[in-house]
Amino acid sequence: MSDGAVRRVRAGRRTVEVHRPDKVLFPGGDDAKEYTKADLVDYYRSVAPFMLPHLRGRPLMLERHPDGIDGPRFMQKNVSDNYPEWINRVEVAKEGGTVVHPVCDDTATLVHLADQASVTLHRWLSRVGRVEYPDRMVLDLDPTVDDFTRVREAALYLRELLDTLRLPSALMTTGSRGLHIVVPLSGHHDFDEVREFARGVAEVLAAAHPDRLTTAARKKERGDRLYLDVQRNAYAQTAVAPFSVRARPGAPVAVPIGWDQLDDPELNPGRWTIADAVEQVRTDPWGGVMGRGRALGPARRRLDSLV
Fold it and tell me: In whole angstroms, what is the distance from residue 14 CA to residue 27 CA?
């Protein structure tokens, strides 16, 4: 129900207050639909059953837009003083001290974060209790030029290599420019080991397709080649969480997809928005892949044999 500038939203066993629900976060125009904070809250509440398994037990970094996506952006790590006591937190080490991150374990927390205009949720690749040992590896296909054909092509190259290494993989639109390929891990390797392995994968792939792919971090060195970005595989780094809304016109969403959907001519990084993403997630496109975490030892030996 609504009460002036406050809307009360039932989320699981809790009722969460949403302040200024009519606040426009995504202005309309140029064929982009207008969306308010209430729309953001409703989306996250509806997608919670599918999104929470990817958030639970993981430190978060929040991308907040209190005045809408055209206003200032705040990247928040520390839990604010006004957060309810029932929101879970985790204190992790950083250089020179510690930082207390929010952890989203339930629908009520997700709704509260949306009330704070946390448009996008960026998650750690590791979990509370083992923050130095990731159970996800992410490879970001970042196009230098606006050509999604090259992104599709790179995704297929990468999948073929990961299949050769006998590593399961899952595909996700980012709602931004490219695609993410996610590999579930056993959680027995630290970030240095995982990043080194990811870099090795990227280098083998770039060497096989030097005119199409690159591992050059500097943009001026890439030309028009697609960048294979492995930098998210590091302690305290984050990757956009599945089903997160992106701070772009029309409110596109980062959506898990099946490999067969790569052939869809309508596919692009912003294919789904908060208006229709829920219909896609109900299909469970990853089909349990994330439960098949692998150790990297055997894959490392196979990768070395390809060099």
Answer: 30
CA distance 114 to 121: 10
Confidence of residue 4 (pLDDT cuts 50, 70, 90): low
pLDDT in tens, 45-96: 999 999 999 999 999 999 999 999 999 999 999 998 889 999 999 999 999 9
Q: Taking Cα atoms as reference points, which of 5, 61, 70, 79 lies closest to residue 38?
A: 5
**What pLDDT, in 10s, does the model give residues 8-50?**
999 989 999 999 999 999 998 888 899 999 999 999 999 999 9
> Which stretch of DSSP H or E encloses residue 285?
none
CA distance 179 to 260: 14
110 burial level (CB within 10 Å; 0-12, 13-18, 19+): buried
Tens-place pLDDT, residues 106-140 = 999 999 999 999 999 999 999 999 999 999 999 99
Torsion over CA of 155, 127, 270 and 216, rounded to 10 degrees? Answer: -50
Structural tokens at position 223: 């030309």
Strands 226-229 and 213-214: parallel
Sequence letter at residue 196: E
Read out DSSP for 187-203? S-S-HHHHHHHHHHHHH
3-class DSSP assignment, residue 252: strand
Residue 41 pairs in a beta bridge with none
The predicted model scores a pTM of 0.94
The span from the CA of 57 to the CA of 40, in Å, is: 23
Rounded CA separation 170/157 (Å): 14
Q: How far is CA 114 from the centre of its chain?
A: 16
Which residue from 199, 172, 167 is spatially nearest to 186, judged by alpha carbons?
167
Q: DSSP states of 222-283 as a string?
A: TTTPEEEE-TTSSTT--EEPTT-B-SSTT-BB--EE-GGGGG-TT--TT--BTTTHHHHHTT
